[in-house]
Amino acid sequence: MSRLTFAVVALLAPVVLTVPGHALPRMTLTTGAPCANCHVDPQGSGLRTDLGWYAMNQTGAWTWKQIGWDSLHNLEDNTLLDGKVSLGLDYRGQMARLGRPTRGTDGKVKLPDRQVIPMQLTPEIAVMPTDTVTVTGSMNASAFVKSYPGQSPWQAWARWQPSPNAPYVRAGMMQPSVGIRHDDHTMLLRSDAASPRQPMIPPDYADPGAEVGWAPSHWLLVQVGALLARNLTEAVPTVAKDEPGASGRLALFPQWLEAGLNGMAGASYLRAGDLQFTSGYVGVGKNYWGTLLFEASHAKRSAKHSTLNMMLHATVPVKDWLTVEARAERATSELGSQTAETRALVAGLQFEPLPFVELRPEYRYLVTDDYTLGQYTLQLHLFF
Amino acid sequence: MNSSSSPTAVRAATRREFLCSLGAVGVASAALTALPGCEVAQLREGTSGEFQFDLANPTFANLALVGGMQSAEALGHKILIIRVSNAEYVALDRLCTHVFCDMGPDMAGHWDKAAETLTCVCHDSVFAKDGHVLAGPATEALTSYPVVVTNGIGLVTL
Ligand code: FES
Fold first, then answer.
1. How far apart are CA A314 and CA A291, in angstroms?
2. I need a surface site. Which of A4, A241, A328, B69 has the fewest CB within 10 A?
C-alpha cells in the first residue's frame, strides 16, 4: 500500500472519534464464515483480516478505477512488511435528529433539530510477529468526547494461538465476548429502556481482561473470559470499581450446504458484581436470498432492576453492493414497581457505491413511554 | 457500465456516471429531509396535580437517610426525590436535560451530600438542588417541584 493512498484514506475521515466499527451478522449468515475469518477480533468488529479486506475491496457499485482513483484501485491488501502488519480505519458519521420532541412556545410539538454527527474515527493496527502471536490495538475519540459512559478510549490486546485449530488465549484491554457485537450502536439490545443513552455494554466498551477461546471445528466456538470492572462501573453504577467479572459464550455456525443455508446461534453470559447479562441469538441466511436474525438479552442489574430486550432483523440483498434491511426491537426495563418500554422499527438500505464506502439511508420509528419520533437518517461509513 | 472501447472514454463515462449517481444520492437525501410529512413527533407529558409518598413505605426506604434519593413515577412525570437534610427534600425531573440519561439511584445520578449537587455520570453535567445547571454539557435546568413532608408523609406538587 502506498503511503499516499493511506494518507488519502486517513484524510477522508473527519475529526471526532467515538465508536469503533462493528460486525455485520448478515455477512456470516450469507457466507457461512465465522466473524474471525474477516475480522482480527474473534467476536467480529473493527480491523479486517486480509480476507475481510479483500472481500470488501470487491464490493461496490463502481470501482475506484472507474472513477479515476487508480492508486486506490490497485491496492492489493491492507498489510505491510510481508503481512506482518495490518492496518485499518473506520469512520462513521450520521445525519439524524438527536434527542426527543419538544413543545414549542406556540404549544406545538416540534421535531428535534437535524444534526450531522461524527460518531467514530478509529485507526486500527495488528502486528503478527510470528504465526502464533497477534498484537492489536485501536484508538478512538472517547478520549476527548465521552459519547456513552463506559466507553474505552482505546483497546489493545495480544493473542497467542499455537496452531490454527488450537485454543487461543488473549489478554489486554478488550471487550468480553458477549452476544453479537453489532455495527449499529442505535440498536436497543444492550441498553436499558429507562435510560437508552446509558447502555449496559456500550459500543466500544473495554476493560482489562483475558479470554480463552477454542474453535474445534468451523461451526463451533467456545469462549470463556475474566475481566476487571473499570469502565463497566460507569455504564452500570451498581458494579463496583475493580469488581472481578466473568463471561462465557458459545457460538454455533451450522451450515446446510445442499440447501445453501447458513446459520448462527449462540448464547452468552456476563457477570460482574450484581450485573448478570445473558443473551441469545439464532439466525439463518441464504446467499442471494437474505437473512433473518432474532436476538434477545436479559439483564439483572440488581435485586430490583432488570431489563429484557429483543430484536428481529431481516436483510435482503438486491445486489452485492445494495442490501435492504429492516428490524423491529422492543426494550423493557423494570425497577421495583416502575417500568419503561421502548419500541423501534427501522427500515433502510446498505449501499456501497465504492469499495470501503457505505451509505445507509434509514427511516427510524421510535416509541417510548414519553414520546414518539419517526425520522429519516443517513449514515456514512468509510473504512479500510 | 458502458460500451465504449477506449479506456479513456470508459474512465470519463464511468466517472460521469459516478458523479451523477452521487448527485442523485444528494438529491435523494435532500428529498428525504424535505419530507417532513413522513416524520412524526408526539409527546406524552405528565399532568399537574399532587403526588403523595409515605416515608414508612419500603419503596421510599432510600429517603430514610440524609443524602438518599428515590425515583418515582408521578402523574406521568419521571421524578427524583432527594433528602437534602433532615427536614429538606427536593423533587426534580429525573431525566438529564442533556441527552436524557435517567438520574435515578443506581443509574446515572450521583448526589453529593456535602456540595448538595446532582451529577449525571453520563457526561458529567452537574445540577444544583433547585435544578439549575452548574456545569455542562447540559444547558437547560431540570424542572423542580415543591415538596412538603409532614409527619412522614410527603407531598410533591407537580
Ligand atoms: S445525559 Fe446527562 S450529562 Fe449527558
1. 5
2. A4
Nearest to B71 among A335, A351, A373 (CB): A335
For residue B62, what is the domain's CATH number?
2.102.10.10
Pocket probe mutation, ligand 1, options B123, B126, B134, B142, max atoms within 8 Å of Cβ: B123
Domain end, chosen from B9, B25, B45, is at B45
SS3 A244: strand
Which range of residues forms the domain containing residue B83? 46-157
Please indicate, yes or no, whether residues B83 and B128 belong to a single structural domain of this protein.
yes
> Are B6 and B65 in a shared domain?
no
Q: Is the CB of B101 under 6 A from ligand 1?
A: yes
pTM summary value: 0.81
Residue of A nearest to B14 (CA): A66
Phi, psi of A14 (to 5 degrees): -70, -165
Percent of chain A residues past pLDDT 70, beyond the cut: 91
Condensed to tens digits (0 to 9), the pLDDT of residues A261-315 reads 999 999 999 999 989 999 999 999 988 889 999 999 999 988 888 999 999 999 9
Residue B45's Cβ-side half-sphere holds a number of Cα atoms within 13 Å equal to 14
Could you report the predicted ipTM of this complex, rounded to two decimals?
A: 0.74
- Are β-strands A243-252 and A305-319 bridged in parallel, bridged antiparallel, or unpaired? unpaired
Domains of chain A: 3-383 (2.40.160.10)
Tell whether the model's pLDDT for residue B29 goes beyond 60: no
